[in-house]
Specification:
- It comes from Lentinula detonsa.
- This is Nuclear transport factor 2 family protein.
- The chain is an alpha+beta fold.
- The protein has one domain (12-142): Nuclear Transport Factor 2, Chain: A, CATH 3.10.450.
- It is built from three helices and seven strands, in the order ααββαβββββ.
- Strands 1, 2, 3, 4, 5, 6 and 7 form a seven-stranded mixed β-sheet that branches.
- The two termini are 28 Å apart.
- 23% of the residues are buried.
């Protein structure tokens, strides 16, 4: 178990053991945000894996280390990102994808919402995040977006 307790807002029972293993990597990564644990987050990723972050209608291209570096670890505010709906997991041998709606909270209040699209590679028996694409939407402006 990671440093913080994951609150599941979805049904984990529908997933196979391998699908839960993929999902756990994403949960560990997100737990690292709330715990301000850069090491926990880094342990879940291939550092040079790619990321496309859609912000204000424009893409930001970076690698997964860059995604982690964007987290305001030194902020005095409580921060948390959590999966806010039922995820979709697909696996083919040693690659996987995960589609997750999310909420990003600052001081327990929703700041923005969106969708994370994760890709994974299985190396030496361990799933790692190999890439991510996401968007960030203002809650009132995103009705029906998930």
């Amino acid at each position: 178990m990671s440093a913080t307790q994951t609150i599941h807002l979805y049904d984990r029972s529908v997933f196979s053991k391998d699908e839960r293993a993929v999902l756990q990597v994403a949960e560990n990564f997100l737990d690292g945000i709330g715990a301000r644990d850069k090491i926990l987050m880094t342990e879940q990723v291939l550092p040079s894996g790619g990321a496309v972050l859609m912000r204000n209608g424009a893409p930001i291209f970076t690698n997964l280390t860059g995604v982690i570096d964007r987290i305001p670890f030194d902020s005095p505010n409580k921060i948390e990102e959590r999966i806010s709906g039922q995820p979709i997991v697909r696996i083919d041998t040693n690659i996987a994808m995960l589609w997750t709606p999310y909420e990003f909270l600052i001081n327990d209040k929703v700041d923005h919402i969106g969708t994370d699209i994760w890709s994974f590679a299985k190396l030496d028996g361990k799933w790692l995040v190999s890439g991510v694409a996401d968007n960030a939407l203002i809650p009132d402006a995103s009705a029906g977006q998930h």
